[in-house]
Amino acid sequence: MEPFDVLGAAQSVRSGAVSARELVETSLERIDRGDAELTAFVHLDPDGALVAADRVDDARRRGEELGPLAGVPFGVKDLEDCAGQPTTRGSRWFADGPSAERDDLHVGRFRAAGAIPVGKTATPEFGAWGYTASPLHGVTRNPWDPSRTPGGSSGGTAAAVSAGFVPFGTASDGGGSIRGPAASCGLPGLKPTYGRVPSLASTRLAQNAVNFALATTVRDTALLLDVAAGPDPRDRTSHPSTGVRYVEAAERLPVSGLRATWSSDLGFVVVDPEVSRIAGSAAERLVGAAGLATTDVTVALDDYILTYVFVEGPDQFVDVPADWADRLGELDPLVVDGWRSAAEVTLPTAARVERERRELEHRVAGLFEHTDVLLTPTNACPPFAAEGPMPEEIGGRPCHAGHAALLTMLANLVNLPSISLPAGLTADGLPVGLLVTAPRHREDLCLRLARIWEQAAPWPRRAPAA
To answer: Exactly one of 27, 134, 153, 202 is catalytic; which is it?
Structure first.
């Protein structure tokens, strides 16, 4: 069986060309053959997946209407709940916990549309890093080069999709955790506006992290957003429906004449020169293919890493064990100091950080008065060592470890939709991403530009593991 995408797999099941059981069996076989090297999955549920597949096949034989994702196998990121499977968050704190009793909202919506979860995909502990390694589950590796990281924190899903194990998987993005892995693994990766996809367990205080998915094509990404988006009464931050059909918007939304601004570094990020060159060339080609107008706007922001760190801090304490302070020795040593310092933050400090965030929001809002789309590299450097840590030198220049993810963090801090697109390969054959960031609520614009790029510069699909 050839590498499968979401639309193709679902259409094959509906037409009877392939059964849901065959799709799930193929997915499980590919994982069995290839995942010993990658560690994309940290838990599998083959029996449950095959039972679900048989239900889809029985429904088709009875002539029942099938959902848009009927029979499509997928992975669920291990920060998110999937009923009947464990959620460890990559941490020893939750290693022996019970299986989840209910799905997170987007997982449930994918299931209701007919998709079949085959297992949980790897994440760094609590999704803390831009690479995927944890004391509990070990190191996850990039299918393009197993010595390199697939990114983080949705690195397990990105590796699984890029390797052809599953057509899609769930993912979340609190500072680039969908888009960074997408860039590292040669995939498109959309971060929706916060609230577009509702959640039971994502951030409510920081409002920086969103749940969604990763797939191999823009059309699949649009279809998945059509399934996942929309309000839910259990999430007070969820947005009302827009009435937009993202599959249609990706094909038809008029964009010619819109203004695009290129920035290689947002004015302060240390970016690898090769990455900047590849992404800049892709930006020029996208502008031409979409008929965009370029601006001479200069983007000059200040380093917001400390604002970001403080903003996301409170949410990490919401669901931790009551005796967390006595169990810090069980954590990745790299995160322990962060837990201790976060516990000492005062309300005046939180208020100062909120002021800084508002100032950044105002500056970015001013930027979008003069442009319709912001184009940058996705990651500041190519995929680095799979084991980590995040680099403190990029392109021969010293930097703090956050620089590798600073370009993506902006959209999380100011709540903008943003999509990473495969821009090309380095001289070492490693994927590089182009980041397209649009005004708030304009996922349709992100997807339309992504679809134009997909048609103008088709990217390679990774073959399944041998």
So the answer is: 153
CATH of the domain at 118: 3.90.1300.10
Question: How high is the pLDDT of residue 425?
Answer: 95
Q: Where are the alpha helices (DSSP H) in 154-272?
A: 155-162, 179-184, 218-228, 246-252
Is residue 462 one of the residues assigned to a domain?
no
Measuring CA to CA, which residue among 413, 117, 114, 104 is closest to residue 235?
Answer: 104
**DSSP state at residue 144:** T
User: Residue 378's CB: how many other CB atoms inside 10 A?
Assistant: 30
- The answer to whether residue 77 is catalytic is yes
Contact 205, 314 (CB under 8 A): yes
Provide the token pair at 239. Answer: 């947005």
Distance CA 57, CA 71 (A): 8
Taking residue 76's Cβ as centre, other Cβ atoms within 10 Å add up to 31
Q: Residue 418 catalytic?
A: no
Question: Cα separation of 391 and 393, whole Å?
Answer: 5
Q: For 418-454, what is each residue's pLDDT tens digit?
A: 999 999 999 999 999 999 999 999 999 999 999 999 9
C-alpha torsion sign, points 310, 312, 314, 319: negative
Whether residue 466 is contained in a domain is answered as no
Q: Would you say residue 203 lies in a domain?
A: yes
- Which tokens is 64 given? 């029942």
Using an 8 Å Cβ cutoff, are 105 and 112 in contact?
no
Pair of tokens at residue 104: 């997170």
Place of tokens 């919506």: 109
pLDDT tens figures, 141-193: 999 999 999 999 999 999 999 999 999 999 999 999 999 999 999 999 999 99
Please report whether residue 283 resides in a domain.
yes
Distance of CA 330 to the CA centre of its chain: 27
Classify strands 73-77 and 168-173 as parallel, antiparallel or unpaired. Answer: parallel
Half-sphere exposure (Cβ direction) of 83: Cα atoms closer than 13 Å: 14
Rounded Cα gap, residues 457 and 454, in angstroms: 5
CB 415 within 8 A of CB 218: no
CA distance 393 to 385: 13
Residue 389's identity, in one-letter code, is: P
Structurally, the chain folds into a number of domains equal to 1
Sign for the CA dihedral angle at 6, 255, 366, 270 comes to: positive
Range of the domain at 223: 6-456
138: left (phi over 0), alpha (psi -120 to 50) or beta: left
0.90 exceeded by the pTM?
yes
Which of 134, 177, 184, 238 does the annotation list as catalytic? 177
Catalytic residue among 19, 27, 77, 162: 77
